[in-house]
Design brief:
Layout lengths: L2 E9 L6 E9 L4 E5 L6 H9 L6 E6 L2 E2 L10 E4 L11 H5 L1 H5 L4 H14 L15 H14 L4 E5 L7 H18 L3 E4 L3 H7 L2 E6 L2 E6 L1 H6 L4 H6 L4 E9 L2 E3 L4 E3 L10 E6 L5 E2 L8 E3 L1 E7 L4 E6 L7 E5 L6 E3 L6 E4 L1
Length: 342
């Protein structure tokens, strides 16, 4: 079932905070992640879709049906919250079957469905257990099974992994993705974790101050951000103010660099974005865009080094990632400089 938001706006009473004219569509079986800094409006958007918050303008439709005026339980959406919201007085199986119980499904049928889903999420044999005695990762899988038990038309995930240790987040992130694919669940994920969004989502919506900045594939968001705000939020980068000073040439204050300027006029003010993995190490002295300097702060990441590379006259260091340390110079290929208009 497709989920579509068109020009959705909402302002919290007595404040200027909320969301402004958000238009996104989650296609059938697609997982869309909504990311942004605190206060960007991403959680508000999820509450409006779920019906937990009402009073918006614009439209929210599910499979072509307008959700306005429908209560939370009438929207047939499965929800997994950051806190998981499990019932401590119910067993694991009873938690999974809770939504079916509300829908008057017979006990044997709902417990059979619960067992089926517990097996799917890797909790076979835990049906009679007390949820309070499960680990955080196990509780998260119970919450996911409960959300899927009702065969929802859409699945809403609100920071589902934020309460878990980093050591198990990656594993559960992959498991959620596989289960979502198996069910073909139309899914909206809200997260502050950009790695989670980029690895799980088919498309990503980046928000700031209640507005949608960019809606694109993970590759598009990372490789082709449409603004400095998106570039700064998604991934690591070095960004410098620049002026177009010639055909395929920019001036970033402390040096000039060759890069395609795509018809921008001389004197145009832009920002130059350079990702750390695109730098070449110790290039030939005669090559273009060679930058001489010295390594300062170093971080060992196991498979590579991430370090600051100081340049004479630069207001701040370049952030570089490579398998070896630069000795005296780095190079940024012209095609790997992205110019962002102000």
């Amino acid at each position: 079932m497709s989920l579509a938001l068109h020009e959705v706006s909402y302002t919290y009473p007595g404040t200027a905070h909320g969301v402004k004219a958000i238009t996104i569509a989650v296609e059938v079986g697609e997982l869309v992640a909504v990311i942004g800094p605190s206060g960007s409006g991403k959680s508000t958007l999820l509450k409006l879709v779920s019906g937990l918050t009402t009073g918006h303008s614009g439209s929210i439709t599910l499979n072509g049906h307008d959700l306005s005026g429908l209560q939370v339980h009438q929207r047939n959406m499965g929800m997994v919250f950051q806190s998981y919201a499990l019932f401590p007085h119910l067993t694991v199986a009873e938690n999974v079957a809770y939504g079916l119980r509300l829908r008057k499904v017979g006990k044997s049928a709902r417990l059979a469905r619960a067992q089926e889903l517990l097996t799917l999420v890797g909790l076979d044999g835990y049906g009679a257990s007390n949820v309070a005695k499960l680990s955080g990762g196990q509780q998260q899988r119970v919450a996911l099974a409960r959300a899927l038990a009702i065969d929802p038309q859409a699945l809403l995930l609100d920071e589902p992994l934020s309460a878990l240790d980093a050591s198990i987040r990656g594993q559960l992130r992959d498991q959620i993705k596989l289960i979502q694919r198996r069910f073909g669940a139309t899914t909206l994920l809200v997260t502050h974790d950009q790695e989670e969004a980029l690895t799980m989502a088919d498309r990503v919506a980046v928000m700031k101050d209640g507005a949608l900045l960019q809606f694109d594939t993970p590759e598009g968001i990372y490789a082709a951000p449409n603004s400095v705000a998106v570039a700064e939020f998604v991934g690591l980068s070095s960004i410098f103010p620049a002026t177009v000073c010639g055909d395929d040439m920019i001036d970033i204050g402390f040096c000039r660099l060759h890069t395609p300027t795509h018809g921008r006029s001389h004197g145009a003010q832009v920002s130059a974005l350079m990702r750390p993995e695109h730098f070449e190490i110790d290039p030939d002295p005669a090559c273009t865009n060679r930058l001489a300097g010295a390594v300062t702060l170093t971080r060992y990441l196991g498979s590579m080094f991430r370090y600051d590379f100081e340049l004479p006259g630069a207001p701040r260091a370049l952030l570089v990632e490579s398998r070896q340390m630069a000795r005296e110079a780095v190079r940024i290929p012209p095609e790997h400089i992205r110019l962002l208009d102000h």
